[in-house]
TrEMBL record:
The lineage of its organism: Bacteria, Bacillati, Bacillota, Bacilli, Bacillales. Keywords: DNA damage, DNA repair, DNA-binding, Glycosidase, Hydrolase, Lyase, Metal-binding, Multifunctional enzyme, Zinc, Zinc-finger. It comes from Staphylococcus nepalensis. Transmembrane segments: none annotated. Its EC number is 3.2.2.23, 4.2.99.18. Its cofactor is Zn(2+). Belongs to the FPG family. This is Formamidopyrimidine-DNA glycosylase. Monomer. GO terms for molecular function: 8-oxo-7,8-dihydroguanine DNA N-glycosylase activity; class I DNA-(apurinic or apyrimidinic site) endonuclease activity; damaged DNA binding; double-stranded DNA binding; zinc ion binding. It holds the Pfam family H2TH.
């Protein structure tokens, strides 16, 4: 699943081509249309397809940003403003091309689901191999309450105090620390890969209960989460399976991972072990992480 660094690079890749452009037409794939006809919320969430088109076509994208693992498009038509909120799910991606055939990754070219035709003759294409992603069109963030619950960006000044305050809540005190930092209400944008890596750098076993961490360990873990997210951005994200940049290129963060999907620990040489925590496969070194 694309995490904060991967979504950051997708956002950076498409922004120069879409900001300031008018959406002239929205085209849906047969799979999206069939899904909606069957009452499923396939890709386009919360609105009927014709309603989505009505609130999107003719609107201009006046800004775009990443928020946690979401890409947010701010659109306007005369005096009316709306927001497109997209989550890439497990294997979604945006591409900016002149024509569909220009998407250079076959699976993404085949599994396109939404095309935004722009007035600069470019196509903003949302492709999703597994169809777990989503695009919403809302009048304001109030229409998507869970979005408002997202923690501050981990690079923001208030992020640390926000994170530390969660240790005083009962919700996670008796649950694994790995589960806690995966919650975007606690730390925004930290998914499975970067949680595993941060916990390794901090020397903390992912299964330890949150209440067992001392103050220094809590703070240290936060700083390592931020550090690995910054590294992920530096190296263009981790292209371990399906993730691609907006131009189809791959990131190289996978070359800098210490425990995630690794066989042996790069520090002590012992075997990396795995354990399912909060339905996610956790990778850790039982020797280096206590």
């Amino acid at each position: 699943m694309p995490e904060l660094p991967e979504v950051e690079h997708v956002t950076r890749g498409i922004k120069p081509f879409v900001k300031g452009q008018k959406i002239e037409e929205v085209i849906f794939s047969d799979k999206v249309i069939e899904g909606k006809d069957k009452g499923k919320e396939t890709i386009i969430k919360g609105l009927a397809l014709d309603t989505f088109k009505r609130y999107t076509e003719g609107y201009t994208i006046y800004d775009i940003e990443r928020r946690s693992k979401y890409i947010v498009f701010y659109i306007e038509n005369n005096s009316e403003q709306r927001i497109l909120i997209s989550h890439l799910g497990m294997a979604g991606g945006f591409f900016v091309v002149d024509k569909l055939e220009d998407i250079n990754v076959p699976n993404y070219r085949k599994h396109w689901h939404v095309i935004f035709k722009l007035n600069n003759d470019k196509l903003l294409v949302y492709s999703d191999i597994r169809r777990f992603g989503e695009i919403r069109n809302v009048a304001s963030f109030d229409a998507y309450p869970s979005f408002l619950e997202i923690a501050p960006e981990p690079f923001d000044k208030e992020a640390l105090s926000h994170y530390m305050a969660w240790f005083d809540k009962r919700l996670y005190q008796n649950k694994p620390i790995k589960q806690m930092i995966l919650d975007h209400r606690v730390i925004s944008g930290c998914g499975n890969i970067y949680a595993c890596e941060a916990l390794f750098r901090a020397g903390i076993n992912p299964a330890r209960k949150s209440k067992e961490l001392n103050h220094q360990e809590k703070e240290m873990l936060f700083y390592y989460v931020r550090e690995v997210l910054e590294a992920g951005i530096k190296y263009g994200g981790a292209s371990i399976s399906d993730y691609r940049h907006a131009d189809g290129s791959t990131g190289t963060m996978q070359m800098h991972l210490n425990v995630y999907k690794q066989k042996t620990c790069k520090v002590c040489g012992n075997d990396i072990e795995t354990q399912v925590i909060a339905t996610r496969n956790s990778h850790f070194c039982p020797t280096c992480q206590k």
